[in-house]
Specification:
146 residues, alpha/beta, Rossmann fold, 4 helices, 27% strand
């Protein structure tokens, strides 16, 4: 994201260990420990961002569709470039209810579909199993917040 001109990147995770790993990358202006859909959106990130992006968050035993409400609420209402970007397995749209939430937000005029790009997560483990990680098809979804 830094390579694309985003300078003030805030990394958010529920795990202190993951935040310590993120700190090593030196890509973040700020790191915040926060558990989506449980703690309520912190005031310090409400209406603050141009872009809300996540990977690996929308999965089993992580978060429900309310995470999309939180992503939208975190966006700066004055920014002309308000986007919600996330990755998830196509099957999770139905089985975990993300698709129904997306439809609700589209019908309410809160988001508009921009694009979807399928890719292989854990593709670098091709031909081998590394713990529970094995190649799986996922998609990156981009929505413009209205």
């Amino acid at each position: 994201m830094k390579k694309r001109g985003y300078e003030q990147i805030t990394g958010i995770d529920a795990s202190d260990g993951m935040l310590r790993e993120a700190e090593k990358k030196q890509a973040y202006a700020k790191l915040l420990e926060f558990y989506c859909c449980r703690d309520g959106l912190p005031e310090e990130i409400t209406g603050k961002f141009d872009l809300a992006c996540s990977s690996g968050l929308m999965a089993h035993d992580h978060v429900d569709g309310r995470v999309l409400d939180e992503k939208i609420a975190s966006l700066n209402p004055q920014s002309p470039h308000r986007f919600v970007i996330f990755t998830t397995r196509e099957s999770y749209l139905e089985t975990l209810g993300y698709g129904a939430k997306i439809k609700e937000l589209e019908e309410a005029g809160k988001i508009q579909f921009v694009m979807k790009k399928p890719f292989t997560r854990y593709g670098n483990t091709e031909g081998q199993e590394v713990g529970r990680f094995k190649p799986v098809q996922v998609s990156c979804f981009v929505y413009k917040a209205l």
